[in-house]
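Translate sequence into structure tokens.
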Amino acid sequence: MDGFQVQFLRYLMGLAVMLPFMARSGFASYKPRNMLGQFTRGGVHTAGLLIWFVALPRISLADTTAISFTTPIFIMLGAALVLREPMRWERWLAAAIGFGGVLIVVAPKLSGSAGLYTLVMLCSSPVYAASYLMTKALSRYERAEVIVAWQAISVTVLSLPLALLHWQAPSVSQLLLFALCGMLGSAGHYCLTRSYAAADISASQSIKFLDLVWATAIGWLAFGDAPSRSTLVGGLVICGSTLWIARRESRGQR
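Result follows.
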């Protein structure tokens, strides 16, 4: 199945998952205060997805993982320059240590043979960072569920033209998997948006590196993909940096 169709169906199912909640609360309650901001953010996020899906089939999973973890660095730079968030040294240190943990995991697996498409994948990182910074800005006056719902709407609408170019009828099993992806994706975006509303976006970026730990654990439990020594060492580094910055941030809020 073409990547752009995958993108479209993932967000369409994410919207379908949210419809019961929207109907229960009343669709009028999901009307955003800033419609232009919602679609602009959706357009930026769609652009990041399009770039990501162009490169994804052509580079290794390890390369994809390593490059994706450059996004928090762009977010922290944007938070300092655009949102004027205080950039304490602890946040930079935790992000650097977390990224170092990622490199411990993926460096032995990096191929370096993808050439141009590695650069294409890297281009998606600042675009995603811009999308998340816009989410932070919107969370100052929009509810998290409104932001997630309109992200699903805008990405679905904007992805449809490219999805139709190479459309294939999905099977029932594929639709069920997309429904699961939509549910998990919407839940994840909701939690992420709530975190942006509750704290500085720069304070949460070191926690992003825990994605690698969770992915490794799920791969081991669900698919029997036993983690390597480098994965275990890198995971410990990531967890250590996350726990340290969480403790520092909690002290700072008292």
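Note: DSSP finds ten helices and no strands in the chain.
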